[in-house]
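Worked example 4.2. Below are the chains of a multi-component assembly; read each line carefully before continuing.
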Amino acid sequence: MAAIAGRGPTDSPIRSSLRDPRFWLLVATAALTIIDGYLIFVVAPTDQVLGHIQRIFYIHVPISILSFLGFLVCAVAGIGYLIRRGEVWDRVAHAAAEVGVVFVTLALVTGVIWARPVWGVWWTWEPRLTTTLILWLIYVAYLMIRHYAPTAQQGRAWSAVVGIIGFVDVPIVYYSVQWWRSIHPVQVIGPEAADDALEPIMARILVFSLVAALALFSYLLLERVALRGAEDAVSAIRRQGTYD
Amino acid sequence: MRLLSATLAIAWKDVRLEIRSRDTVVSALIFGLIVVVVFNFGLNRTPGSLAPAAPGLLWVAYGFVGVLAMNRAFAREQEQGALDGLLAAPVSRDAVFLGKMLGTLAFMLVIEGVLLPVFAVMLDLPALSPTLGLIILLATIGFATVGTFFAAIAAQTRSREILLPVLFFPVIVPVIIAAVEATALVLQGGPMQAVWTRWLPLLVVFDALFLVICPWIFGYVFEG
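Applying the procedure described above to all two chains together yields the following structure tokens:
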């Protein structure tokens, strides 16, 4: 609660936010996102085969990758919480899972929007899609378990173990789904096909988009961790009537 | 072998409870039958055999029945503070986990064993195959391990009936895939190479992994 303690009566909210690294991260994220939008919609060449719909790829791929990062952070912070018992570990794990679920939801939505014109169907039981959907289900269950836990401490411990189990399970799900589909081959142009035909300029814009998405991811994560800290402080005040 | 004797004592307690009351096994058997009857109306649109859908049906029914059995396994401990007694017993958490898991495994195998010939008649399957028995055993170990772990969490919440399947099914997807694919290959009676080189090893790896992880983190389930 350094931000609150440090703000004297003469300190304006603007000046205190200028000292907050999150503010500058937000500014950087906004700038990167605007530039990224320009790169995607103006600079990037239109795909000869797929047309404009291919541009969704610059959004879809980075957020898919970062959702995995979110779940990795969630599992590592969950292990950290179980060993170290610091509440900050739990805040990071919870925030990472929330941001991961938001990102993986967006990845599914953009994937569906892309699939309809390109593959002719909204959804196909292709290995990556199927794995992503199961990943989504596991981490929605992760968020549910915090909600259903009778006490906050149980919620923290349970979600940590679910985060660990979920993360261990994901590679097995991926390989089993791939084997399942290789037994019944279906004619689907996988996302791999798009990767091969990548122009250098497209690859560079993709990397830039990844950096922009990483900035957004980091900002959301830090903001959510801070918000969780504030929430915990508020509930502590409610419980005890004081905040020390 | 204190761990082994404690484990067996806890498992035997559950089995004896079930032999005396018979409430889980009977209701689970009837439920398994109902699943097949309902799916019959869902899938069997043209008169004929349900045989092509049989492997999927079998494992959907086993999965649903399994969730029912696992929910019961820990719901029972919640009654009259039995769980506190179990946790206060001077045995390790590993023994508690393995005991509950073995009890659930025994229930599920009995239910599956009784349902299998019934399904074989209804779905017109050649059900008597040692390979199929091995598939059922390995897949059920995976079900019981992950299911017992999540049932211990779900039983302590307000809404255990919904929370257990929501936690259980996404994690168990690899087992369902492997079991359905291997069962289909066995029932087709064709070349079974993929069963031995792919699906059974997948089941073994899944079982081994979760048999290590679940007891390891089981203690955290009973916090607070």
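Take a moment to check your reading of the output against the notes. The mean pLDDT of chain A is 84. Residues 58-228 of chain A form one domain.
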